[in-house]
Design goal:
Structural class: mainly alpha
Helix content: 55-70%
Shape: globular
Number of helices: 4
Length: about 90
């Protein structure tokens, strides 16, 4: 959860509540930027997976009360690269 905020800097759109004991791993933007620099192909793969997930979430929201369409993978990847200062 929170991946779109990590990837693009956008505000979070969801809140998560644990039902039991939970271990959480936080990946901040600096760590993610380091990963992206070390593994440039990761941005493409993560961006595509995030765009697909976002489209699925948007479709569920639209079915219940209407919402805007998700960004295309190429657009999302470009936003990620700008936010991470990789472009």
């Amino acid at each position: 959860f929170g991946e779109m905020s990590l990837l693009t800097g956008e505000p979070r759109t969801s809140t998560v509540v644990a039902r039991g004991d939970t271990r959480v791993l936080e990946i901040d933007v600096n760590l993610f930027r380091s990963l992206a620099i070390t593994h440039p192909d990761a941005i493409e793969r993560i961006g595509t997976a995030a765009a697909v997930r976002r489209a699925e979430l948007d479709a569920m929201r639209a079915a219940s009360h209407g919402s805007a369409a998700a960004a295309a993978p190429a657009t999302l990847i470009a936003r990620m690269k700008r936010f991470l200062r990789l472009a």
